[in-house]
Structure formats: C-alpha cells, structure tokens
Amino acid sequence: MDIKRSSGLILHPTSLPSKFGIGDFGKSTFKFLDLLHESKTSLWQVLPLGITDEVAFSPYASKSSILGNPYLISLDDFENEIPDKELLKTLENLPTEHVNFEKVYETKNKIFYELSNNIDLNNDEIKKFLDRKLIKEHIVFKTLSDKLKINWTEWDKEYLTYSIDLYNHVISNFNHEFKFNVFTQYHFYLQWQKVKEYANSKNIKILGDIPIYVNHDSADVWLNKDLFDLDENFKMNYVSGAVPDAFTTDGQIWGTALYNWDNHLEENYKYWINKLNILLENYDFLRIDHFVGFFQFWAIPQNESALNGHWRNGPWKSFFEIVSKKVPFERLLAEDLGVELDETDEILKEYNIPGMLLLEQRIPNGDDSEETKPELWEENYAAYTGTHDSPTIKQWLDNANTTQLNAFNEYANNLIEKFSEDVWNFISLIWSTPSVLAITTVQDLLQLGSEARFNIPGTEIGNWKWRLSSLDLLKDPLNKISKLNDIYNRSNS
Fold this sequence. Notes:
Oligomer: single chain
Radius of gyration: 23 Å
Helix content: 25-40%
Largest sheet: 8 strands, parallel
Distance between the termini: 20 Å
Number of domains: 1
CATH superfamily: Glycosidases
Order of helices and strands: EHEHHHHHHEHEEHHEEEHEHEHEHHHEHH
Number of helices: 18
Shape: globular
C-alpha cells in the first residue's frame, strides 16, 4: 500500500450531523475533514457508499457495485429549488442521534422525483456522465428494478438482457424513473468528487470499501449471469456466508451470490478489473472485505443453516497474477480477519497489500493462549481498535474476562503515552504499533458502548442507525489523537 506511517478514522457518512435526517455530503462533511486535518489524521475510512436495500439498509448489500447511495446527496445545493418546503420540514424534524431510514428514504425520494423532472438527458454533461463505463447499464437495471419491484429473475424475457434497444425502451417507457436515477447518480458523483478533492487538498486520503460479494438481485449479476453460480433459471442453489467465528457462534448467512470462478478466469477476470478500476476513480485506496474469499469460501445451501455449508476453492494465484497487471494493487487493503491461510499471507506479501490486525481479536482469551504483542506487530498491516462489525472498545472492556484484562493491562504498561481511561489506552496501543496504519472508530473516540455499535453480524434489522449529533463532540478527542500522532510519528503535517 502506497502510504506512509499514518492514522485514520472510520465513520460512514450517514453518521455525520446534518439537518436533513441523515449524514450526507453537505457542510458537516467538510467540517469533519477540517477536524481530521487539524488533528494531523491522514485517512478517512468510509464504508461502502452504494445503494442499500430498504429492509436492512446495509451498505454491504447493494443493487449495484458502482452506483452511489442517493440519500447521501446533500440538499444544501437544492433548498431553493424544492417546490414542497414541507418535505424539508419533515426531514428537519427527524431525530439527530439516529437515522430513521424509512422516513428519510421516503421523503428524499419525493424531493428527488420533483427535482429530476427538469433534468435534460441531452445535456452534454449528462450524456458524458452516462457514457462512463457501466454507468448506463447499471442505471437501466436500477430503473427496471424500481419500476417492476420484483427480483430480476421474474422479469419478462425482453428485460433479461441488456442492449441499446432495451436502453432506449427504458427511456421511452419508464422516463420518470430513469430521470430520477440519472439525476441522483449524477449529483451523487458530483458531490462526492468535491468531497474527495477537498479531503485531498487537506492531505487526507479516502479509504473506500467493497464487499467481495454482490447481491443476487443486482446489476452485477443481471449483466454477468455466466460469472455467477446460478441454475438454469438464474436462481441460487448456494449462497455466501461465514463459518462460526469470534463474532457469531452459528456462522453467518450473507445470502449474496457466489462466483463461478472458472468463467471469470476464461474472461481473464475482466469483471473484476473493470469494477476495481472504476471504484479506484472515486477513492485513494480501497479495502476489499472478506479477502479470504479469493482463496476459499463458505458455500451454504439455499434456505439452510450456515452450519450446513462447505468449503470451496477460490481462484487463488491466477486472480492476482492477471488482475495485478491491470489494477494498481498498491492502492488496496485486504480485510483478512477470521479464517487464516498461509496462502493469503503469501499473496499479501508478494503484492505488498496490507492485511488487518484487530486488537480485540488479538488479546489472549485463555491462560494457554499465545498472541504476538502489539509492539511486535508487522509493519505492512493496518492496525485497528475495532471495525464496523465488532464491539466498541468500551463494550469489549465491559465484557472481557480476567485473562483478557490482565493481558491488556500488561500491554498498556509499556505505553509511552498512558491515559486515565482504558479506552484511550486501547487506542494508544494501536497507535504505538509498528503497523503502517493505525485506525479507530469515531464511537471509540467518544468512549461509547453497545448503543453506538454500527452492525451486529448475523442480524438484519436495527443496524447502521447511529449518528454523531454534533461535531463539537470530537474536538477534545481529536486533540488527543493529534498528540498521539505526534508521539508515534503518524502526523500528516
């Protein structure tokens, strides 16, 4: 990874303050970046910014790997253009401490449908945007999905395969929905580009995120049926998931589509090359979630328990040998938590891709446990206090056993910079490691507990709602981070 010793924060944009019911690409985003700059923090790790479903609202389950989440669009740019001001009042009256996704999505949809009526599809900038690689195809899928409201495998035959004729048909017959999607995607990318440019001007890099798998009901699968493990009716006999681990004792069922890796190889991994390069246009670096899936993956029979799954082999070396020639691997980060394979370590070292070390998982859980002390962690890693999937530090400390607490205290005794709060000693431990990146969450900066957790793996409802009510809450914690950045040579100045 082409980055110097530095530090970063995890915060999904939906968690930022905003007067419109959900964090977005508005004024608070730029103020947040100012605060990161002042604290000498070099990296903002956002979670996936794609379209979410309207049940779980998870950024890790999307109808498209390249389209953006419309609800991240700031209304600051459109306040004077919105005819129905009551819609703005509805958003302004929503809670500030959590996201009411249902109400936000419903209200913003009404606003965007109103605004999109005026979009000119013959405008040169719009035409240029639609001609970007795969944008047009993915918007056609999203439009059909919005209009037909059923899984694409149930669509009429005329809609099952993309073509220019289908594109023209969609514009003619579903013009309102098509304009809505063009409008929202165009402004999503326009606003996000301004955010990224501003971050870079402050010497802050953006770390994006991509799940290895995609939803079955997605543009990716619809456009590339042969590249996924589907039956003759394009349905899934097996779905993705995970074996039991530290997060879930019964394993996890993600329910996303599995790849037909043999067919990917026949196409020289074109799908992956295109997708990674498109996403790297929008981020400085890219984290690949569940990186181990390139080596082996857990296939679960449809509608069965995760415990009934079995291991299958991924593409292994062929993927990296071919894709590395077309994709800048120095801009990738691998989420390699969970299953540990020697083959994964070999690939990461060969291509200089950092893996991840999570302190919560690295503190011995039993008297006979052995674990490498943080002070001896390897350099080519990103060291984390926790992730969006893990307990907050406070939650972990509250539930840790005596062995874990003793090990933690032993590690903390050697710190150059010690605090009176255990949460901050936890953070200081991560900053003190030899690892090139040190990353924590905003929730941990604020010493919050389970009430602020982003996501509980294996659960569908109630996640992703937490919000930061005010950026002022970050001023004192980020002063501490600034001090740690100086002490442990992670400053961006």
